[in-house]
Amino acid sequence: MFIPQSVNFLDPLMKVSKQVKISIENKEKANKRQRYIFNKYGLDKKVDNFYPFELSGGMARKVLLSTALVSDCKVIIADEPTPGLDEKSLNEALKDFRNIADSGCAILMITHDIEAALKIADKIAVFYAGTTLEIANVNDFKGDGKNLRHPYSKALFNALPQNGFKPIKGSQPMPNELPKGCLFQDRCECISDKCRLIRPNARMVRDGMVRCLNAT
Ligand code: SF4
């Protein structure tokens, strides 16, 4: 089940309650489940009869999230599911994701909301300039981030408000301007000569994956 960022992925000509129920064959079960989930996200009964164009951005995300939560899918790819949700709905959505994952469904959450990801994830993959630089266990994101393997992951973690709000200098290279060696070289405080010559391959370090020549 794909939870897109845009309301355009809802059928514009179908009432939202019908779209949420579509994956459940048993009509009675579908009605109850759809209403239960909508209640949970504060979508009252009149929303059942709304068409997608009548939804605000936050409501659209709640409807899309409901579409995933009512089904018995094995994999959920949730692309930026949290913007627009109030704190209560956000916490409920994260709790639902965690419960669904614990029941055996794989969840891939694509997000810029690191704090939300840290609340529910088992593993976190850090992307940069189109490449996965690190796959870390969620417990590696602790303290000053010293357990993280890649300088970018550490910098990202330390840029969070609760970790000192330290900015990362520079910006990501454009796809048509990727350097020869490490993608992070111009922003890295741990750079050595070889970093400008060799693009690091993925390797395992301390039960995680990293693309850095100097990671230990
Ligand atoms: S390979 Fe070199 S430049 Fe790239 S992140 Fe590692 S230390 Fe920094």
Any key phrases for this structure?
216 residues; alpha/beta; three-stranded parallel β-sheet; 6 helices; 14% strand; elongated
What can be said about this structure in brief?
It is built from six helices and seven strands; from the N terminus they run βαααβαβαββαββ.
Order of helices and strands: EHHHEHEHEEHEE
By oligomeric state, this entry counts as single chain
How far do the termini sit from each other?
37 Å
Count of separate DSSP helical elements = 6
The proportion of residues in beta strands is 5-15%
Q: Could you name the ranges where pLDDT drops below 50 across 5 or more consecutive residues?
A: 1-8
Largest sheet: 4 strands, antiparallel
- Shape verdict: elongated
Report helical residue fraction: 25-40%
Round the Cα radius of gyration to an integer and report it.
21 Å
Mean pLDDT: 90
The small-molecule ligands in this entry are: iron/sulfur cluster
SS-based class? alpha/beta
Number of DSSP-assigned strands: 7
Major beta sheet, strand line-up: 4-5-7-6
